[in-house]
Each structure stands twice: as C-alpha cells, then as structure tokens.
C-alpha cells in the first residue's frame, strides 16, 4: 500500500508506536565525478546535490515525520547529504552516526548495524550508496526500487525491536516513496 508519493503528505499516516518501526532509506544526493587521483570515497556533492538534499530535509520536516536517528555511510557525499538534510531537521550530533563499512554495504551489512541500534529510536533514516541502498529498499518493500540520487523510500515495519529485523519484507506493513 503506497501511503504517499510526490507531495509527501502524511496527514492520514498513523505514526509509529511501540509495535512499529519506520525506516527511511535515502540514496546520497548528486555527486561530482571522480577527479584525477581522487578516491571514489572522497567525492563531494554538486551544487544541485546540496540543494536537493536541503529540499529533501524541508519535505521531511513539513511532513511532521519525527526522525529519531540517522545512520549513514561515512563517505564524503553521504556525509554531506546528511549535513544538508540535517540543517533543516536539526538533530543533535549524538543522533547521527557515520559508519565506514556502510560505504560498500549490501543488505546484510545494513541489517547487521541496524540490529545493534537502541529501540528508543522508532524512525531511522539510512543514507547510503547504490547498489546496496536500493537493494535494501527493494528487500524491505518487496518492490523493485532503484533509487536516484537524493531519492527516498520508506517502510513501516511491524516490529517492537530492531533486533527482530530480518532481510526481506515479511515485517513490512506498508511503504511510501518520494
């Protein structure tokens, strides 16, 4: 069931309770091409990428969604995406974690780290890279999702603890995309 698309209107959405967890899955914003001698890990956002990530933060803020924690790849372009989103969301530093292994993580790598997160966080934003981040979104929703730069999708999961999360969409109540 698609809750919303495009205008990001969540007025009819039932927000998470103690038996529901939400994952917002975001691909990093548009990045510059790799420069001579530069590691892929160090690529930066383009001006369009900075603008788009700030706009995504605005849309999330206007939706009344309460992001509790952000988990992201530590690669420069993912960190910059989080920085621009968080200029709007204003989460404190202790609610943002950059993790180097998420740079090339596939589904099991993401799941392994999510399983360790405290259950007091009901809504997590994940920021990463393709192909892994789109593979994770596809597995969670049961749909074929190929996230474009700075595109997001999310799932509402029937879980009381992150430790219950497994690969696949068996916990998914509904999903949404932007």
First and last CA, distance: 14 Å
Give the helix level as a range of percent.
25-40%
Instruction: Provide the gyration radius in Å.
Output: 15 Å
Mean pLDDT: 87
User: Shape from CA axes?
Assistant: globular
Order of strands across the main sheet = 3-2-4-1-5-6
Instruction: Write the element-wise H/E pattern from the N-terminal end onward.
Output: EHEHEHEHEE
Helix- and strand-based class?
Answer: alpha/beta
Uncertain runs with pLDDT below 50, 5 residues or more?
1-16
Give the number of helices.
4
Count of extended strands: 6
The portion of residues forming beta strands comes to 15-25%
- Characterize the main sheet: 6 strands, mixed
SSE order and pairing:
Layout: E1 21-27, H1 47-62, E2 69-73, H2 76-89, E3 96-99, H3 107-114, E4 123-128, H4 132-141, E5 152-157, E6 172-177
Helix pairs in contact: 1-2
Kindly describe this structure.
The structure is a single chain. The protein has a six-stranded mixed beta sheet with strand order 3-2-4-1-5-6, with helices on both faces. The chain is built from four helices and six strands. It is globular. With 178 residues, it is an alpha/beta fold. The longest helix has 16 residues, at 47-62. Helix 2 links the parallel strand 2 and strand 3. The protein has helices spanning 47-62, 76-89, 107-114, 132-141, and strands at residues 21-27, 69-73, 96-99, 123-128, 152-157, 172-177. The two termini are 14 Å apart.
